[in-house]
Amino acid sequence: MLWHIKKVMHCHFPDLSNRLSSITDPRKGIHYTVEEVVMAAVVLFLFKCESRNSFNHKLKDEQFRSNYFRMFKLNPPHMDSVNDLIEKIEEKELISLRCRLLSSLIEKRVFHRFRFFSDYFCIGIDGTGAYHWGDDPDKEIKDFALKKESSTGKVSYNSLILESVLICNNGMTIPLISEWIANDGQKYDKQDCELKAFKRLAEKLKDYFPRLPVCLLVDGLYTNVALMDICQQCEWKFITVFKDGNLPSVWEEVESLLPLEKDNTIEQVCGDSIWWYTYNYKWLKDIQYQKHTVNWIKCVEENQHRKTSQKQIKQFVYLTNIDVNRDNVALLLKAGRARWGIEDHFNTQKNRGGNLHHKFNRNNLNAIKNWHNLRQLACMIGELVEYCEQIQSLLKQQSKMSLKELYANLNSYLTMCHADEVIVEFEHWSISPRQIRLE
What we know:
Among the domains are: 163 residues, no CATH class; 87 residues, no CATH class. Helix content is 44%, strand content 22%. Strands 1, 2, 3, 4, 5, 6, 7, 8, 9 and 10 form a 10-stranded mixed β-sheet that branches. The chain is globular and about 75 Å long.
C-alpha cells in the first residue's frame, strides 16, 4: 500500500505539491506551510483515520512522524492547526483544486478505457445524508440545515449532500463535485431539496468540465422535463430509471407501441459455474414528451441455478436520449445499471473508512464543507491506489484479504517499522518515466 500510494502520487499527481502551495493562506505568523496543513488533512482521510484525535494520536509516535516525513517530504502539523486553517480557506479554492486534478487525469486519458461506450463519461448523481445535528445545533448550522418535524412534533436538523461521481466499467467511482442540500440562512417558503441542488450542481459541472462528453446516470426522482432541459442545454446524454408512475403520458405511449414494435427485441444467454443468465431486451425509439424525444429500454433478467433450477427474475426499465439499436441496447442497460456505483461510493464513505458521518468540525459551516472536499480528494487518490493492477491481483489471490485490512497493516507498518528501505527503492524506481496499470 505504501508503494502504490507513492506510485499514484508520483505518476498521477506530480504537481499536487505546487497546487497545494498555491492555495491562499490567510494566516499570520505561520509555523506550518499551507501545503503541510492541507496535505495532513488529505492524509488523515487517505489513511482511514476516524477522527482528528486519532490522527493526533498517531503523530505522538516518533516512528510514524519520521515515516510520514519520508513519504511526503512534509512535516505533519497538529490537527487543531489544520482545522484552524480549514475554517478560513475559501471553499471555491478546494473545489477548484479537486476539479483541476481530475481534469488533468482526464486529459492524460486515465479513464478512457473504462468508459461504457466510446464517446461518453458516465456520471452518477444522487443525494445522501451526511450529518445529524439533533434538535438544537449552533445557529450557523441551524440556519442552513434542513429542518424535520416528526408526527409527534419533535424537531431535528440534518445536513444532506448531492454528489456527482464518475462511474467506470471496472468498478471505480471517482468523486467529481459535491453540492450541499441546504437552506440559504434566510427565511424561506420551501426548504432546499435534491432537485434544486441538482440544478446548481449541473451548472458547476458544466463550468468546470465544459467540453467533457457526459452521460448522466440518475434514479427515478430525476425522470422529469427539468433533467431533459438541462441535458439539452448542456449537450449531455442521460439514462434515467423509469418507474411506474413516472411520466404517465410516456407510459401510455409505450404500452400502445409495444404490440406494434415486435422486432425491437433480442435475447442473450450466458452462464458461469453456478448460474445460467438470460437477458431479454426490448426498446422503443422516438417517443415524444413535451419538446423532447426519448427512447425507452427494458431488460428482463432471468437467472437459473444449474443444479437446483431455482429461478430469479429481475426487471430494469430506463429512459434515455441516446439513440438505441440492437448493437448498443445491452451496453445502455449495463451503463444504466451501473448507477449502483454511486450507492457503493456512499457505502465506502460511510462504512469503509470515509467516516462521512463523523463531524470533523461542529460549528463552522465553511470548515464542514472544506473537510468534505478534502475527503473527496483523498477518495480520488484512494480509488486509483485500490484499482492498481497489483492490489487487485493481491485481493483476488488472497480471498480473505480486504482493503480494510490492507490499510490497517499500512498504519501498523508506519508506526512500528522504518519505511526508508521501501522509499529509497521507490525513489530509484521513479527516476525513469513510469506508468500505472489499472485493472
